[in-house]
From TrEMBL:
Alphabetical list of Pfam families matching this protein: Methyltransf_12 (PF08242)
Residues annotated as transmembrane: none
Family annotation (InterPro entries): Methyltransf_12, METTL2/6/8-like, SAM-dependent_MTases_sf
Task performed by this protein: S-adenosyl-L-methionine-dependent methyltransferase that mediates N(3)-methylcytidine modification of residue 32 of the tRNA anticodon loop of tRNA(Ser), including tRNA(Ser)(UGA) and tRNA(Ser)(GCU). Interaction with SARS1/SerRS is required for N(3)-methylcytidine methylation.
Gene designation per UniProt: Mettl6
Catalysis performed (reactions): cytidine(32) in tRNA(Ser) + S-adenosyl-L-methionine = N(3)-methylcytidine(32) in tRNA(Ser) + S-adenosyl-L-homocysteine + H(+)
Family the entry assigns: Belongs to the methyltransferase superfamily. METL family.
Domain Methyltransferase type: 83-181
Keywords for the protein's UniProt record, in alphabetical order: Cytoplasm, Methyltransferase, Nucleus, S-adenosyl-L-methionine, Transferase, tRNA processing
Organism: Phodopus roborovskii (Roborovski's desert hamster)
Name listed for the protein in its UniProt record: tRNA N(3)-cytidine methyltransferase
Subcellular location as annotated: Cytoplasm; Nucleus
One GO term of the biological process aspect: tRNA methylation
Amino acid sequence: MAFQRKGLQARTLSSEEEEKLQRDRAVVSDFKQQKLEKDAQKNWDLFYKRNSTNFFKDRHWTTREFEELRSCREYEGQKLTLLEAGCGVGNCLFPLLEEDLNIFAYACDFSPRAVDYVKQNPSYNRERCKVFQCDLTKDDLLDHIPPESVDVVMLIFVLSAVHPEKMHLVLLNVYKVLKPGRSVLFRDYGLHDHAMLRFKAGSKLGENFYVRQDGTRSYFFTDEFLAKLFVDSGYEEVAKEYVFRETVNRKEGLCVPRVFLQSKFRKPPKNTDLTDH
Ligand SMILES: C[S@@+](CC[C@H](N)C(=O)[O-])C[C@H]1O[C@@H](n2cnc3c(N)ncnc32)[C@H](O)[C@@H]1O
């Protein structure tokens, strides 16, 4: 059973949780950090080799949480063009395509295996979807998508996998393909999520940044950090909230506090009032 609430303040830690984070402050050596950065793509590709399409559940909540994805276009039949950046095997993408026939979706990921899984999905249809492999921190999205042609960009649990010093490169990259006045929809791990407190000593890479056993990395966001990142890249903040989910497993007597940060940022509209008065 899961309980959910939303709020503007990050989760407060218990004294034991606080102590645990204080105790495990040592960070991984520079040498190992550089190797993790170099191997980032390989490690995600191996993740999909091990888990194929079975790791993440289909995400059916996106239309509930983000009105931009609902069929609220100005006239019947109007297409919505979206980009899911870091789409994995399509757990977000396919529910959306199945729900709304007037969506055209670009989707990309830097794991070639994940991209292949998307292409092999029986719901993949080249008339409604274009998936491609790319590293969002260095490959230009304009090689695959016309400038300012996308109505909605989705960043769902992807920015957390990128090194914090490179996150702005992802935001600048998607900025180029997003139409002025349109938004980036963001959901990702929030500060003090259960996963952050479960890391063993020796997994810390930096502030709120950790490495999993398989070499994939995860950042845990505060709303301030995220807003600065977007605003410095030219966006305006539209909405933000922490989502707190308490998953109660009665059989095992476990209560797991999950924390996500859900936000929206807009590319400013073009100034149409440029004529001299
Ligand atoms: C946690 S998964 C989320 C997948 C999907 N968005 C979802 O919600 O199921 C993170 C994804 O980000 C991708 N990724 C990480 N860094 C990336 C980068 N620099 N460029 C493109 N994709 C990246 C990984 O390959 C992985 O598929």
